[in-house]
Amino acid sequence: MDLNIILYLSAYLIAAIPFGFILAKVFADVDVRKEGSGNIGATNVLRVLKEKAPHLAKKLTIITFALDATKGMIVIFVAMALGADDSVLWTLAVLSVVGHCFSPFLGFEGGKGVATGFGVLLVMLPVESLIAIVVWVISSKVLKISSLSSLIGLTALLISSYIIHPDM
Q1: What is the spatial distance between Cα 35 and Cα 28, in angstroms, rounded to a whole number?
Q2: pLDDT band at 166; cut points 50, 70, 90
């Protein structure tokens, strides 16, 4: 089997691991798919566990975000070590987000892909990603709306990417 195919399948399947669902279920006995927004991501983990298990809410949210970001990075780092082309790396990045959003482990449902997307972008566009996270943190503190703050952070990433790489 072609190495790229193995990398592509690995990116999708590793990113499909529903960490928010697993952590909330194991540590708080809560199915986040049936509470709040029904999403498996860090934002819904926080929202649901604030109500159901407040003593675990922040810890499990941080762990969920970190694991969701990291799962998108793992295969990209492996592919980089193997000398993969940029086109392969970007394909892995997309497949990681798709895996998180459409997990075969959850009937092809999942999260919104924000943390996983951030993880892959942190590897592929590190400076722009750091700018985006600073903008997201400020926006979320001011607006207190995670989804809108994520969109504002993404906008900052796109603008900074254009400024840093105007020839791409």
Answers
A1: 13
A2: confident
